Amino acid sequence: MKSQELAKEYKDYVLNMRREFHMNPEPSLQEYETSKRIKAELEKDGIECEIVADTGVVATIHGANSGKTVALRGDIDALAVIEQTGKEYASKVHGLMHACGHDSHGAMLLGAAKVLNRMKDEINGTVKLFFQPGEEVVLGAKKMIAAGVMEGVDAIMGIHVSSDVPSGQISADSGARMASGDMFKITVTGKGGHGARPEQCIDAVVVGSAIVMNLQPIISREYSPFDPAVLTVGEIKSGTRFNVIAPTAVLSGTTRCYSPEVRKNFFDSITRVAKSTAEAYRATAEVEFTEGVGPTINDDNCAALARETAASLVGKENVITVPPSTGGEDFSFFSNIVPGVMVKLGTGNKEKGTDFPHHHEKFDIDEDMLEVGTALYAQFALNYLANNK
User: For this protein, what does the record note about how its cofactor is bound (predicted)?
Assistant: First the structure.
């Protein structure tokens, strides 16, 4: 397979770019040097490209034959993590680290651009490559969409390396693969006073605690057990001193689910429980809901094509099924517009020390998989355009 042969040819290039990105991480929406570097690399090969949404890059490769347009997406931002890998290519920026593999996504996408540029005569249509900023703050995809990158796009595919999946294995299941991720804040207002005279007060700590407990049955008693969901209160802030009854309490949390319907109902459920509980204790509660990302749902046809493509690269026996994740991905903003598929590329290898969880200070990837990811990006695009003339 030509794409596989070319990916092998560019193996060292992709590895070196991955390490360069790893050593020079930039935070979400501040990937200025990274995007400049990507643009410079694309321009070396004469690939049409531009910086969009401040720190994103879009490259466009026009095939020799007319046809549809498919997009390939790789994110490029880093995390506020102090690296502890001890590798020679460890982060040079204290407090910032590519602890989720986005350095590899950007590098593999650059490799795929080289492969596809060499194969323009075999492309039936157009390939767009999105080097996306700000995934970790779930704003980058929306910014790129607002900049118009999805105009004319018919389908999209993304790859995420996964330390949970053994090296050499790939997952591209259809349906819900990653959960929605939204945030809520509940502000409780009571009446403060002396800790020795509770009858004069309305204790916001007690009210807030009751709300936390009353929120839990929303999952078990309002939604179907066949629609998995999570409601977590991760933060409670209240009080100033041990013997002072707090007049206010602020609760912050997150909701996760795979069902758009459940996601839509969460706000009403949380608001009803918070307000009614507060009223029962003579207090008041105000609820704010902040939309994060929707569930990432892989299109059936795109997922089938991704599995077929993966099987041609690693063998059918290494295309596996993995359970959905409750993590969120702003790839969902793209795949809500057109059919899409998010593929998991296994990079977990205990012997190489690449099985640490994502966002861990010792996270690393099995770099032997960069070649596979490069070929997967390129061949998926070729297959999609060949099948959808």
Answer: The Mn(2+) ion enhances activity.
Q: Residues 70, 102, 344, 255: what is their CA dihedral angle, to the nearest 10 degrees?
A: -100
Lookup result for tokens 């109902």: 265
160 is in an annotated binding site: yes
Has residue 255 got a pLDDT over 90?
A: yes
Q: What is the pLDDT of residue 389?
A: 78
Same domain? 383 vs 255: no
360 is in an annotated binding site: no
* Count of structural domains within the chain: 2
Per the structure, the complete domain to which residue 264 belongs is given by 180-293
Is position 100 annotated in a ligand binding site? yes
Strands (E), 112-180: 124-132, 155-166, 170-171, 175-178
Q: Which of 246, 263, 293 is the last residue of a domain?
A: 293
Beta strands 65-75 and 155-166, pairing class: parallel
98 belongs to an annotated ligand binding site: no
359 is an annotated ligand-binding site residue: yes
Report whether pLDDT(367) > 90.
yes
17 contacts: CB under 8 Å, gap ≥ 6: 41, 106, 107, 110, 111
What span, in angstroms and rounded, lies between the C-alpha atoms of 23 and 4?
27
Q: Rounded to an integer, what distance in angstroms lies between the CA atom of residue 360 and that of residue 193? A: 43
Degrees, nearest 5: CA angle 207-209-215: 100
- Section 82-101 average pLDDT: 98
298 forms beta bridges with 175
Neighbour-count burial for 38-55, b at 16+ CB within 10 Å, e otherwise: bbebbeeeebebebbbbb
| 340 and 367 together in one domain | yes
